[in-house]
């Protein structure tokens, strides 16, 4: 274990020395204020230990990483009928693209692009008021992280709501096809609040641990999803977790992963570890620049890629 801690310390040191950190997301004004000089990493292990380096205790906006948790929650509620609403193929398009939606009759390519996650939010909303659905998502993530301190950053939620025209367009467009069934402002209310959840690397790594442990949360000894479902969620993360940078991430890192425009990435080494990394500067496709490099180094040095060394 000393070796893993040593590798994490090395990676954090290398990140601290980097000048080229990418650009912090600009289109959500609250995110544009975040200091790009931060870097944190945490590795949660099946025996309950969490090893960290850098700013692993600093909360950040998890943004699209939340889509892993809402997909898991929605699959638990609806089972495989969810896939009639959303596909599971890589999009090859930017995270907020609308072009495929028209060609494919309002059915989003996968649950990790914005359109797909908005459709999943619509499913979670069924039978609920928006506030209840938001509460259900937060409770689920707190339970996974085994930490009641996980919260929503209301300033980020308000900032996204005020600048959410693109997501509103996606939602209205899908509503015209029946993929979205609730009022658009309710669905976006859920979606923007799930994206505005703030967590630190330690909490996020712990929350993802069930995906590394065949669907079982070793912290609470509960089966969150079946082993079969965990395997499939990992497969979708590998293929679709980094938008049109998913192929590059698989090539460089070789793990299922999900990024967010807050600069966080959750990556899963099945059977071995759940890893959360955060650095707010993004590459041109919207994935954390130093976060991707850190994961590439971690999988290389620990030989954790699912594709071998
Ligand atoms: N809340 C962001 C949006 O809808 C999520 C995008 C992301 O993290 O990739 O634009």
SSE arrangement:
Layout: H1 2-16, E1 23-24, H2 29-32, E2 40-44, E3 50-54, E4 60-61, H3 66-78, H4 99-103, H5 114-125, H6 130-145, E5 151-152, H7 154-162, H8 165-177, H9 184-195, E6 197-199, H10 201-207, H11 209-212, E7 216-217, E8 222-223, H12 227-240, H13 246-252, E9 257-259, E10 264-269, E11 273-278, E12 281-282, H14 289-302
Antiparallel strand pairs: 1-12, 2-3, 2-11, 4-6, 5-6, 7-8, 9-10, 10-11
Helix pairs in contact: 1-14, 3-5, 5-8, 5-9, 6-9, 6-10, 7-9, 8-9
How would you sum up this structure, described in words?
The protein is α+β, with helices and mostly antiparallel strands and 309 residues long. The protein has two domains: 2-63 and 197-302, Beta-lactamase (3-Layer(aba) Sandwich), CATH 3.40.710.10; 66-195, DD-peptidase/beta-lactamase superfamily (Beta-lactamase, 3-Layer(aba) Sandwich). The protein has 14 helices and twelve strands. The chain has helices at residues 2-16, 29-32, 66-78, 99-103, 114-125, 130-145, 154-162, 165-177, 184-195, 201-207, 209-212, 227-240, 246-252, 289-302; strands at residues 23-24, 40-44, 50-54, 60-61, 151-152, 197-199, 216-217, 222-223, 257-259, 264-269, 273-278, 281-282. The strands form four sheets. The chain has a five-stranded antiparallel beta sheet with strand order 3-2-11-10-9, with helices on both faces. A three-stranded antiparallel beta sheet has the order 4-6-5. The protein has a two-stranded antiparallel sheet with strand order 1-12. Helix 8 crosses helix 9. It is globular and about 55 Å long. Residues 63-64, 95-96, 114, 160, 167, 195, 260-261, 286 line the site of glutamic acid.
